[in-house]
Write a structure and sequence with these properties.
mainly alpha; 134 residues
Length: 134
């Protein structure tokens, strides 16, 4: 038996779909609605060794992942892939809302000053126009 046949034997698409669904925090009901079936039917699908193309496509669409993850991933590699791809705790957000607020106030002040300059210019031009009309 060659390595490709071994890999196909190790792949349990139903378990892959279930683990990826759980890693993304998606309920079976969401998959059921996409497929137009009951939640119990989704549970049965996740117990199957192989899934049909439409089912895999629906899972991939709802989970926003590539179908390859469900189709070809051996059971033993799924936990580490899921941990690497779906671990949101490693993301660091460097966003300070006070800095953004100060930036917006500064921009507002600049726009207000520019508006005042334009109003002064407009009133000057209007005054010149009126004096020229007399």
């Amino acid at each position: 038996m060659n390595n490709t046949e071994n890999n196909k034997k190790d792949v349990h698409q139903g378990k892959n779909a279930k683990r990826l669904r759980e890693a993304k925090g998606v309920k079976q009901d969401a998959i059921a609605m996409e497929l137009g079936i009951s939640q119990q039917a989704v549970s049965q699908l996740e117990r199957r060794q192989e899934l049909d193309d439409a089912t895999i496509a629906a899972y991939a669409k709802v989970l926003e992942i590539d179908e390859v993850f469900i189709r070809n991933m051996p059971d033993d590699s799924l936990p580490e892939v899921a941990a690497n791809f779906f671990d949101q705790s490693s993301q660091i957000l460097n966003f300070n809302p006070l800095d953004k607020l100060m930036e917006l106030y500064s921009e507002k002040d600049q726009l207000y000053e520019r508006m005042l300059e334009l109003e002064k210019e407009k009133s000057t031009l209007l005054g010149q126009f009126l004096t020229d009309q007399k």
